[in-house]
Amino acid sequence: MRLAFKFFLFSITFIFFFNCEKEDKKSENWVKLFNGKDLTDWTVKINGFELNNNYNNTFRVENGVMKVSYDNYENFTNEFGHIFYKKPFSNYKLRLQYRFTGTQVKGGASWAAKNSGIMLHSQSPESMLVNQGFPLSLEFQLLGGVNENEPRPSGNLCTPATHVLIDEKLITEHCVSADCKTYYGEEWITAEVLVNNDSITHFINGKNVISYSRPTIGGEFLESTSKETQAKDGQSLTSGYISLQSESHPIEFKNIDILEL
Questions:
Q1: What is the reported pLDDT for 11?
Q2: What pLDDT shows up at residue 216?
């Protein structure tokens, strides 16, 4: 009798927690930012060109994947580009998959080989100058290994025209390395970011690789932005656009989803 009662209590407890977990998953309203068919809802800005000039068809969609491609380039001459989702966000979870493919286009800098990024809390594409290579933003840097046995972690933080705190210390250097392994091949990798008020965390394949907080506008790259943007020096950065980079190495993105918190 006592054994049967214990089994009954265990069953009730299991069902309760199982149902709660199911309800939590049901309540998460993830939204697809990329439809897998075309670049609807996305805006292209490439350095040296007006807004929406997708120079040499750099950003394109093929087989359900958003691609950064350089097969129409003879030579890369600082055509750093970004493709922006249509609206800004503040608190959210973002997840996507990426992979580097092929070889870097001729003319690309050595540091840009297998180098791309997810720009967070970015300025709007409309506010960028024609000759502006990088938006004011927090960059979730995506890197791949180039030389065997040479570490090159992904998920780093770079800070074009921004500052952050890490462990309550002001970070002014442009890039901070993440605690992440190096991926040398062309495998798909999952990148996730959690933006919770003024605290931000990067994840690579489910691992927390770096966290930082209290982003503000400022730093060496601020001078390359417009006077209106420069006037915001020192302001807190609490929201902004999401964009994906083109830096001279082919890269592919898919399954780009967001959960607003």
A1: 55
A2: 97
